[in-house]
Specification:
Number of strands: 15
Structural class: alpha+beta
Number of helices: 13
Radius of gyration: 34 Å
Shape: elongated
Length: 446
């Protein structure tokens, strides 16, 4: 059964429908086969070896296709089994046919065949039970099909839930890297992103401001590790997308997979190597900076909505990280730089004083959620301190290293959900110790 829900021969065999039909025919010493609505064999011709060749000829020879069409139309109209002579060169031949329906829709024709007078008598007797047996089969196959579709849907939901949960965990870690400027885990995060999306490469290109029409390779990730061949493949002399695709990437990104990949695109744009690709633009302050690309070279695939949304989120978050990291490299992790970072992040973030929990800064996302007047309010009711008492020595050591950080999970009533709370401590403008908090919502969508 494929993803469109069509029932094929494999489905019937896996559920032993062939055993039921052939068992009925064997008890009656008759020949049996099942054909789909187009006359293609679903269950192979079966029966006594003596005249099995003749029955194969009747079922598989194109010259009898009109006979099959006439029989099929007759049983569809009557919704009952029919018994008939058949002109196959043998005066003793007889044929019976019964419809099989799936959820009320005609699906296949079950054929019983007699080649001799003795078999003919058995077919005449079996015919009276054939219609009832076909109705029972229709009911059985319908229930099997319905259950299989439910199982497949449940499996899809389970896979999506697992993907969403892993994606959320990865985004939380990326956010932490961006918010705290801590690059120690970024390589492992790239590995996790590549593995969950099951792609071969991720590549980040930056616009070459000195050479119009050129892109500069900034960094890349490869499933089997970095190497000269991969690096040579990604080091372009110029932008290999035509102007139409370049504009599409800048505006909406590019989503190409089995559903819309053309032979011309595969050859002329991707040099015959790419099976599927996601390309998303990198912007900062409304200026196009470059693009992040996810490449599948190994197999044909169709991107799921979860994969597309996750890749967009990663591109957005990593692009912010790549854009602002120069500020951290300058060694000025100042309050102004931190505010600029949080202003750009699509998550809730705020800063409060340690002694009384008063909010001294809230980013736009937080203010839009709770109201613009939250600065100056007490935050303890919303998020108490995770540790009621602090070790002065550890706190002092943490401040010397710019922050002491913690991570925990909490339901926040005012925000209406459960969040991963990322909290660290630093000196604020007037030298007081401040608690900097970023909140990542623990939310899975179906």
């Amino acid at each position: 059964m494929d993803k469109k829900g069509d029932i094929n021969s494999r489905f019937l065999l896996d559920n032993h429908i062939d055993d039921l039909i052939n068992g009925f025919a064997n008890v009656c010493d008759l020949y049996s086969a099942v054909l789909d609505i187009n006359g293609h064999v679903l269950i192979e011709p079966n029966g006594p070896s003596t005249y099995l060749g003749e029955f194969h000829e009747l079922v598989l020879n194109p010259k009898y296709s009109k006979v099959y069409v006439d029989v099929m139309n007759c049983i569809i109209d009557s919704k009952q089994a029919i018994y008939s002579e058949i002109d196959d060169g043998n005066p003793d031949s007889r044929l019976a046919a019964a419809p099989i329906f799936i959820d009320g829709r005609f699906y296949a024709t079950w054929i019983l065949y007699a080649h001799t007078k003795a078999q003919n008598q058995k077919l005449f007797k079996a015919f009276s039970n054939m219609s009832t047996f076909a109705e029972v089969l229709s009911d059985i196959v319908t229930k099997l099909y319905t259950n299989s579709m439910l199982t497949e849907k449940e499996e899809d939901i389970t896979n999506k839930l697992e993907f969403e949960q892993k994606a959320k965990e990865i985004m939380s870690r990326i956010l932490e890297c961006v918010a705290l400027g801590d690059k120690r885990d970024i390589t492992k995060i790239y590995d996790d992103v590549g593995n969950i999306l099951d792609v071969d490469y991720m590549v980040y290109y930056k616009v070459d401001r000195n050479r119009p029409g050129y892109m500069k390779l900034v960094d890349y990730w490869a499933k089997h590790g970095k190497g000269k061949d991969a690096e040579d493949a990604f080091s372009w002399d110029s932008d290999h997308y035509d102007m139409e695709l370049q504009e599409k990437i800048k505006k909406d990104g590019l989503i190409i997979d089995k559903n819309n990949m053309t032979n011309r695109m595969r050859v002329e744009v991707f040099n015959g190597n790419v099976k599927a690709i996601l390309v998303f633009p990198v912007y900062f302050h409304d200026i196009y900076q470059g693009r992040l690309i996810f490449i599948e070279n190994t197999k044909e695939r169709v991107w799921t909505s979860s994969e597309i949304n996750f890749a967009k989120d990663v591109a957005d978050m990593i692009s912010k990280d790549l854009t602002i990291e120069s500020r951290f490299r300058r060694g000025k992790k100042s309050n102004k730089a931190l505010i600029e970072i949080f202003d750009a992040l699509p998550i809730y973030a705020f800063v409060r004083t340690v002694d009384d929990g008063k909010i001294i800064y809230a980013n736009p996302a937080m203010q839009n959620k709770l109201g613009s007047g939250i600065v100056g309010q007490n935050s303890f009711q919303m998020i108490p301190y995770f540790m009621k008492e602090y070790d002065n020595a550890n706190m002092a050591e943490g401040i010397a290293h710019s922050y002491t950080k913690g991570k925990y999970k909490r339901y926040i009533q005012q925000l209406g959900g459960t969040f991963d709370v990322l909290e660290y401590f630093m000196r604020w403008d007037d030298g007081q110790i401040a608690s900097v908090i970023a909140l990542v919502e623990d939310r899975i969508t179906l």
